[in-house]
Amino acid sequence: MDELFVHQTPDLLPRVATHHPHWRESYFFDMHRPDAAGDVVFLTMASFPARQVLDSLQMGKVAGAPVLGHVERAYGDDPHTTSMPGARIDVVTPWKEVRLHTDPEHGAAIGLDVTFRARTQPYGLRRGTMRAGADVVWDQSHILQSGIYTGTYTVDGTTHEIDEWVGQRDHSWGIRDHGRCPLWLWFQIQLDDGFLGVWHWELANGARVYTDGCWAATDGSEPVPVIDFRHDLRWRTADGKEATYGEDGATAVGLAGVCTFVLAGGREITVEATGTFDRPYEPFQRGGLSQMRVRTDDGREGSAIYEVTGSHHHRFFPDTVVNGVLPT
Question: What phi, psi does 200 have (nearest 5°)?
Answer without folding.
Answer: -140, 130
